[in-house]
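Re: geranylgeranyl diphosphate structure - here you go.
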Amino acid sequence: MNVKSRLATLHKKVDSALDRWLPSAGTKPKTLHSAMRYSVFAGGKRLRPAMCLAAAEACGGRLSAAMPSACAIECIHTYSLVHDDLPCMDDDDLRRGRPTTHKVFGEGVAVLTGDALLTMAFEILSRTEPTERYEVKDFLKELAISAGSLQLIGGQVADLEAENQKVTPSALEFIHLGKTAAMISLSLRLGAMSANARPADCRALAKFGTHLGLAFQIIDDILDIMQTSERLGKSAGKDVAAGKATYPAVFGLEKSRSEAVRYTKIALQALKPLGGKADFLRGIGDYLLEREF
Ligand code: GRG
């Protein structure tokens, strides 16, 4: 199976769905809607929505049923990047190969762009179809918990507080379970729920997502050291300069790589109950371990 070309196909489908959901750039206030579109269509990899759609397929569901979940997650992800790049957080000038939202539209509009994308995620997800097992409120609750103070935002706060501190491996894991793994695991779970998956399959996919999320973050940390800003589309080498809590800072590069391999193995193991239907997800797992940007 060609994972890259399937990812590219899903990328296109997600982009056209997002294009339909987001107000046009000409809608008042034009600055806000232009900034939302600028941020969302800046060239992200769309990995989370792709995993959401792939999970739906693995559970026998339709892509169209999973699309509101996929788009809602990408809106949350983009909001988190826009806010993370602000001067009061990571203070970054480059994201997805372009100047960051606040560099183009100013800080006030960038904050409100993130707020609007976060809110829009709930509007989009509220339009998902209920299934036999899952009501719309179950989808909304999953999203709210994963993006909330116990996970995404909690991880970000722990990350801010860990800057220039000595962090333990468990503190490091807490940060990345929240900042990275929560949204990836959510993507798999919502995709499965849109396919009315059995609770056991949802749990298997959630476990896959959590471990894949940790592996993804480790690779991200390694790439921050090894790759150029051009290739990454964001400022490389920033983690070390900012005294960030990263896997290479705690474990060194070699052990970090072996940890990424270990987490990927656990993730792939979790897919066993899904059999051959999860082959694309397995392919994504292998692909992410070898990615170069
Ligand atoms: C502001 C609440 C709040 C949270 C911010 C997303 C985030 C949390 C921080 C950004 C920095 C970082 C290392 C996040 C970990 C997750 C991660 C690796 C994000 C980048 O994901 P990609 O590579 O990005 O999938 P694209 O641009 O391809 O969508």
